[in-house]
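@channel anyone free to eyeball this complex?
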Amino acid sequence: MNFTLKHTDPGSKARAGLLKTAHGTIETPIFMPVGTVASVKGVHQRELRDEIDPDIILGNTYHLYLRPGTEILKSAGGLHKFMGWDRPILTDSGGYQVYSLSGRRKIKEEGVKFKSHIDGSLHEFTPESVVDLQREIGADIIMAFDECTPYPCEYDYARRSMHLTHRWLDRCIKHFEESEPLYGYQQLFFPIVQGSVYTDLRKQSAEYIAGTDAVGNAIGGLSVGEPAEEMYEMAEAVCDILPTGKPRYLMGVGTPINILENIALGVDMFDCVMPTRNARNGMLFTSEGTINIKNKKWEDDFSPLDPMGHTFVDQEYSKAYLRHLFAANEYLGKQIATIHNLGFYLWLVRESRRRILDGSFRPWKDQMVKQMDKRL
Amino acid sequence: MNFTLKHTDPGSKARAGLLKTAHGTIETPIFMPVGTVASVKGVHQRELRDEIDPDIILGNTYHLYLRPGTEILKSAGGLHKFMGWDRPILTDSGGYQVYSLSGRRKIKEEGVKFKSHIDGSLHEFTPESVVDLQREIGADIIMAFDECTPYPCEYDYARRSMHLTHRWLDRCIKHFEESEPLYGYQQLFFPIVQGSVYTDLRKQSAEYIAGTDAVGNAIGGLSVGEPAEEMYEMAEAVCDILPTGKPRYLMGVGTPINILENIALGVDMFDCVMPTRNARNGMLFTSEGTINIKNKKWEDDFSPLDPMGHTFVDQEYSKAYLRHLFAANEYLGKQIATIHNLGFYLWLVRESRRRILDGSFRPWKDQMVKQMDKRL
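replying in thread with the prediction:
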């Protein structure tokens, strides 16, 4: 067994667990910083490791396939060696990125043909090819190839798409089982629940996915524009069906509040570009609420960036200084904000874990959700 | 006396010295990384301090005056506190930036009227106002307000401009002596030699500047497009006149080869945007020659960035990885290249100092100049 459930919160469905992978054990709940093209944008690997300290990061198969390409990654001995990161990596399957290329892709039973966003060249992903690509990347956790439905989505489309995702899943599993890791270490495979915002489809999909008896299970197709309440409803319906003894990964979620609410529903793993992307636009997440550091009000606030913060940037730089860097369009501003936000997200999941283990998660979560909703 | 000459190289005019300032002692020869708007682009202050380790950095009065403005800097208690840098800072006077705004500035006896490159607003710098601005910034070393002549430059224009610079210098000195530091520590004042590429003007200017008996002296108006041989000729003519017991600062120079050649002529201090700007374009300086990391030849070279390098990036990242970051337009690439280049420049001046002190500078310099001229 790769996953061990250590504790469940008495006041919610939140769980603390341990997920063993070839590059190390992951303490859950966990947030995975997104390293799209073999780099968490603007963050040195040593800062990621020593300051932000996530147990695992995420890479995007679509982006890595285009650049540097899996031939280079194979020559390097896999993504870990290529980028100098020796902790676990999870790769998505490219499904989400390909789906986002609307107008530049065609979905068929066999797979998806698409045009590169870089040079317009033609490519095809199939359930088999994305397993191969993720073998070549050498991710510790490999994701199934799925279709991520948009929001809103007609019921009939959602139903047909879910069945396509299930058929693709069968092909992924077959190919995964018939293929071998390339670098001598075990890779884990996670299937993905779909079904848009339709509870009956979500339940049907969750049962199908649970039936594959995979090491871990993911929930896709959420955080695509639906109201938070619908997201929580779907996550809860799915979590209640997915096996207790396996980790649950909610893909692409979300705000700090989304993360706490979904932890309370039984989700164990998260990833999202929000802390990094919003950082580059000057938005800081803190335990007291959000800060738009570009606002003139911070111009002469020489207090530390976040006195409660957990990375060096929070103590070593002031709000006024960071505000100046954004005003002057200095890239160091984006670097500082990114480290701050990722540091905060990782603190949030670590603190959640600590609270789950000592039984105080629920009241703390309720309090935090209120606090973090403020704009400072 | 703020400057102590420790040793002069037997095989050249190279010198090793110590320059005392309010924020610490500077070992010369020194290279000053450029922190234009209160940030060395893409480099955290802790990386600058711990990895690159310069004794002093440079700030630009023109840029700091526009953003964040000296009111903010005054509220912060000066630039050191504002940006979180407790070692020495030198500021230029804004003369060079204002001169670069051709078509957007008007030079008169009183001073220079110019339009901001940011919003076109009208401003004026005078010899007195730039001293005040540098008092407000709180630089350890303050530069005189000068006119930097272009290359090529008519003899008559160069002569008239030199005299204007001298008259401005007198006003700067008067205002400097009549004003006080704002933050309780001593600020040093350096005048600037001008005279374009005309030896007689350079000598005349050097004598005028030497006559002011300043703590240190600068050479401006070089590295503006003239052939390296003319730069060396002017630097040598000026160094031979400037007092031996005062540090000599050659402004805006240059390539690693330029730096070694000018050290050999008796220059002690340098600054240049080249290591940082060229880094952002993928050009790396090494002791074996220059690397264009964007070249396809590095695509599968997984060896360390620079095995002889002196910062963490040189060992922790490979050439192939850095090449990928540039190909994918990931900002981390610029960050890595910047740290590498600054690390190399600082190594170059520290090694020069070591060689001057042990008497082996000249043959080492000759060898290095040959090596570094290669493209790898």
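from a first look: Residues 274-376 of chain B form one domain.
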